[in-house]
């Protein structure tokens, strides 16, 4: 079994979330679904906070958040101490957000990209390791700033 992925969405991202969960499970990841559980209108922030808190509590976990654009989810998730959430809508960004910024939460927009694109981005993101070195110093500077606030 691979690492645990904590996932959440709002109503706009619900169908994409179901698709990504299926793909993650097929790829032998453990999945924690923090909701939402249907397409009824909800506040995305609730789910972004739930995923963020779960990831912040366990550095071995990573998170995936999906809403209509991914913007609201990324903004809210980044309010959780210890979270480095990154919104992506292309493959290069999915790779670089891990390699350079050690993002621990991937955010995507179901109204922006297709399910299959989202899965490609998630695979790239999950397979990419943080490069360390000068990038580790930059990530540490972000975290130091967060801790001083």
From TrEMBL:
What the entry lists under Pfam families is as follows:
LacAB_rpiB (PF02502)
Q: What class of enzyme is it?
A: isomerase
InterPro entries xref list: RpiB (IPR004785), RpiB_LacA_LacB (IPR003500), RpiB_LacA_LacB_sf (IPR036569), SPI_LacAB/RpiB (IPR051812)
**From which domain of life does this come?**
Bacteria
What are the EC numbers? 5.3.1.6
Q: Which GO terms describe its molecular function?
A: ribose-5-phosphate isomerase activity
- Cite the Gene3D superfamilies for this sequence: Sugar-phosphate isomerase, RpiB/LacA/LacB
Name the keywords, alphabetized. Isomerase
Give the family, as the similarity comment puts it.
Belongs to the LacAB/RpiB family.
PANTHER family tied to this protein: RIBOSE 5-PHOSPHATE ISOMERASE, RIBOSE 5-PHOSPHATE ISOMERASE-RELATED
Q: Per its record, how is this protein called by name?
A: Ribose 5-phosphate isomerase B
Annotated source species: Pectinatus haikarae
Q: What is the lineage of its organism?
A: Bacteria, Bacillati, Bacillota, Negativicutes, Selenomonadales
